Amino acid sequence: MKIAFTSSGTSWTSLIDPRFGRTEFIVLYDEEKQLISAIDNSHVKNVAHGAGSATAQIVFELNPSVLITGNGPGETASTALKHHHMRIFVDAHDMTLKQAYEQYKNGKLKEV
Amino acid sequence: MNEIVILSGKGGTGKTSITASLAVLAGNDAVIADCDVDAANMHLLLNPDFGTTIEFFSGELAVINQKQCTRCRKCEDACRFNAIGYADKKMQVIPIDCEGCGYCEIVCPTRAITMSERKSGNVFISNTKAGSKMVHARLDIGAENSGKLVARVKNEARSLAVAGNKAFVIIDGAPGIGCPVVSSLAGANYVLLVTEPTMSGLHDLKRICAVIRKFRIKAGCIINKWDLNEKKTTEIKQFLQNEQIEQLTDIPYDIRFTNAMTKGKTIVEVPSPYRQILHRIWNEIKSQLPK
């Protein structure tokens, strides 16, 4: 299963980025292959408007089964992501990716 | 470090007056961010020194290389904003009309047009009279606030708070519910709503509450100028109760707010009962933040 995180950095020790649309990075973890990869989202971060839907598009293409983020996604991004059979877990801000992943595994993250 | 965002939905409810008052009460414990950049005015009350200026770029502007231009005027036909015209024997871009869409760049047969990054204003880092740091911005003429600019102001404020080991970032949010407001909410720990008892005050309060609910952020509300329409105030209280948003206090219409403002002061710096009331509100908000 592939899991996507909104992240302020590119490693397991990076903090979850509370933002969805303007997140610094999207980190993808492939559980089968045990591989972690990061996508630089600075291009979207720097658009004046429409960051939510642009990031939703990127996540859509990455095709993860699970998304772990902070406050967001907001209204527009949520609507877009609903068309994808993806489970969305929120309120993971102030956690590292590793902590958020463990919390998710233990069923302690809030799902929307 | 905790982020507190002050929002109103409707403009003119007293949001900035309240924000600046909290900024004075918080003193050096907080970093202040003015994210209401379209009508930035908190600097009038906090007397910042505009210590550091950072240029801000957003969007694009068409630039014509006159040496390559054949004056075929295809760009002029293509531009739906009428931002390119022929004058002084050359094709010229009218910067204020250019939306940066890039259509002219595509139609230009000699590739004389390129899109360049556009300076849209300045971001400032200041010291305020309250002893705190403040991040604020000023837009150039015709430029608009954006989620990008709000994110920039907030990130600067957040970095300053972390570097200075400050407990709070106090953010004056933009009116409305659009992109800049959503951007100001990301990462926030508490939303203070300031509303007024008018039709549009309640209407816009409902809209902003729907956005806050989406982001699952704890919120409290101040009804400002409550005595101007007691019936509407009752309606607002009912709405807040249904939404389970704490009604922190109601403040009557009082000319002392305006009198203080005209002297460049917040209400907590002049004699009135509001210093004590807002002090209580500030402590109440602090007690509700995550430790």
Overview of the molecule:
The complex is a heterodimer of chains A (112) and B (291). Chain A has 112 residues and is an alpha/beta fold. Chain A is built from 4 helices and 6 strands, in the order βββααβαβαβ. In chain A, strand 2 and strand 3 (35-40) form a beta hairpin. Chain B folds into 2 domains: 2-47 and 128-288, P-loop containing nucleotide triphosphate hydrolases (Rossmann fold, 3-Layer(aba) Sandwich); 57-119, Alpha-Beta Plaits (2-Layer Sandwich). Chain B has helices at residues 15-26, 42-46, 74-78, 103-107, 147-163, 179-185, 199-215, 230-243, 255-262, 274-288; strands spanning 2-7, 30-34, 52-64, 84-87, 90-93, 113-127, 133-139, 168-172, 190-195, 218-224, 246-251. A 9-stranded mixed β-sheet of chain B has the order 3-6-7-2-8-1-9-10-11, sandwiched between helices. A two-stranded antiparallel sheet of chain B has the order 4-5. The mean pLDDT of chain B is 94. The chains are: A alpha/beta (112), B alpha/beta (291). Chains A and B meet through loops of A and helix 5, helix 6 and helix 7 of B.
Count of domain modules of chain B: 2
Major sheet size, sense and barrel closure of chain B: 9 strands, mixed
How do the SSEs of chain A run, as a string of H and E? EEEHHEHEHE
Poorly predicted parts of chain B: none
Kindly list the characteristics that best describe this protein.
heterodimer, A: 112 residues, alpha/beta, Nucleotidyltransferase, domain 5, six-stranded mixed sheet, 6 strands, globular, B: alpha/beta, Rossmann fold, Alpha-Beta Plaits, 2 domains, nine-stranded mixed sheet, two-stranded antiparallel ribbon
